[in-house]
Amino acid sequence: NGGAWMSLCDGKLQCKEGHSGPTHESIQAVFDLQSFRPAVNLSNPTVTNISFTLYAVLGVKAQILTTFLWLRLYWFHEFLIWDPDECDGVTKISLPVKQLWSPDIIVYDVDDDVSQACPFVYVNHTGHIRWDRMLRLVSACNLKIFSFPFDVQNCTFTFGSYMHTNVRVSPALTFKEMSGNSKRYLEASGEWELVNILGETSILQFGIDEWDIITFWVVIKRRPILYVVNLLIPSSFLMIIDILSFYLPPHSVDRASFKMTLILGYTVFLLIMNDLLPSTANGTPIIGQSIYFSVCLALMVISLLETVIITNVLHHNSMKYKEVPNWVRIVVLKHIARLICYRWLEDEAPATKQEEGKSNNLNCTSPPTVTQTENNVPVPHSTSNYGGNCGTFHVLQGKWCHVGYILDFLLFRIYLLLISCYAMVIICMWCIWISQD
Question: What pTM value is reported for the model?
Answer without folding.
Answer: 0.66
